[in-house]
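Recall the central idea of this unit: under ordinary conditions, the amino acid sequence of a chain determines the structure it adopts. In this exercise we apply that idea directly, starting from the sequence alone.
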Amino acid sequence: MPYTVGHKTRINAPSFVQLYQPIKKASIGMPPLEAQGNRPLKMTFEDHLKSLIFFHLEEHTSAQHLLQVLEEDDFARNFIAPEEGIKKSSFAEATNSRGLEQFAYVYQNLQRTLLISYQRIMLTLVISLPSMVL
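Accordingly, the structure predicted from this sequence is:
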């Protein structure tokens, strides 16, 4: 039966969106994920990544539990799960056999963005340091 998680109980929808925003930016220009066989993909890379983030944020105990929540929870169904839902076999296939190139691309872009942000912060500190000493 579908349900809605209370705003303050387990997950705050804006926090997921805020966490996912840099990932979405890091995904720009990512090589497309293509099906390995004749069967079309049931889950996009973005759907898979959102599901994995949600899995860790919510501290689910198993993939089965995650899939149940993706089906029953309003937030998870509307913002994370693929429109047509996802079955256990499709989720297992996505987790075990694909997306390495896409994960590496997103990771490298996030790492680059973090390094640039860190350098800007350090530069700001160095510039403001002489005025603090006086």
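Residues 100-133 form the longest helix (34 residues).
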